[in-house]
Structures are given as C-alpha cells and as structure tokens.
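ESCALATION

Customer reports they have been waiting on this structure for their group meeting. Please prioritize. Original submission:
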Amino acid sequence: MTLLIGERYRPLLAQSLAAQGLAVFWLPDNAAVDPRLAGHADLSVFVSGRQAVAAEGIYPHIVNFLTNREYTVSRSNRQGPVYPNDAGLCVCGTGKYTIYDPETVDPAVLDILDDVPVAVRQGYARCAAAVVDDHSIITADAGVSRAAKNAGMDVLDIAAGHIALDGYDTGFIGGASFLLNNNVYFTGTLDEHPDRDRIIRFIAERGKKPVFLTDRPIFDIGGAIPV
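Update from on-call: job pushed to the front of the queue and completed.
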C-alpha cells in the first residue's frame, strides 16, 4: 500500500510516515486550483476500487505509477481555481458509502462509483469528513452529518475550526487525517481541539487506533489517498 500525498507536505511528514513504515508517492502541486490548495491530494485524485480519476495537471505524473499497479486511470479537465470548480474530485468514499455533491462532482467520478451514494451540498466532501470505518465518519459539517445519518451511517459531530490550513481561517478534519488498516492517522495532535476525547473514544469504539504523525497541532493537507 502506498499513500498519495502532496509534495509540499514532505518536509513536515516524510520522517514520521517512514517511521510508521508507510510508503508515499508525493504528488506535485496542481496548478489548476488555488495555490493555497494546490498540494491537496483530495483535489487532484479520486480512487474507487481499481479505478482512478486524476486532474489534468497531475495525470502525466501519476498515470504510469497507477497503471503499473493495475489501476485504470481517467483524466479530469474540468477544474478551475475557484470553488466549486476545484472540487470535482473531492469525493469521500468509505468502502460502503460515497459522499459527494451532485452539483460539483466530476462526471468521470460518477462513472466509477459503485457504493451507496450519499448526496450532500458540500463540494469538499472528502475534506469535510474523516473516515473511521466503512460506515462511520467524523465531521463538523452539519449538512454532511445529516445526510450521512439519514443514510444509516454513524457520525460523530464535532466543533468547527481548531484545524490549521495555511491561508484560511480553518481546515477540515478529513483533510487532516486518513484511515489505513486499523489506524486513523492524524497530521498532528488533537490536544488543542475541544472534542479531542470524544474523537479518540469514537475511534476506539470502532476498533481503530488514533496515530499522531507530528507534535504540531492538527493541520489540513488535503488528506492522503491509499492505493
């Protein structure tokens, strides 16, 4: 298993990811989106099963890597620098459910979806929700929470904010974490988050373990995509 993560976060995370035995394919910045978000993997690649959609600017850098691992890769060319035009690939798949905004999702993503659809009005769906298992998420977005609960998912609602994202007032929990095997990895600690204990308990109740990759307060990197 290899993680797709933005290259700009290598100085912050490479050492700790290596210490966890995690391999990384570092993605170059995506020039089609806002420079503050150009390193966010969840705006550049979407993966479902053995199929993937890559943003046009990222496609040449990643197509051989993925096809060599027996992925079928499509190209997206619909992105722009202003929301929601940057969010077509920012779709949250849990392995059972797919959370996405029907108004912003890239048609190429719709072609490869095969999980239970959960429609929301949040283009940054993957960033907004931290996946804990195939039917459990953590989110500060009330609309995502409501739709997920209506679909039968387990949801931990947390306070908005308290997550760093350069250039913005706040980041999102999904962009600051990723699920891999039995671990929920966080970019930094939750010590300054008011829902720290609730988050840790919710994860533990589902048989998972939180892992904190750095000693910094949690920060949004656009997540990590396992392939």
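Sent to customer with the following note: Helices lie at 10-19, 59-67, 107-110, 125-128, 142-150, 196-205.
Escalation resolved.
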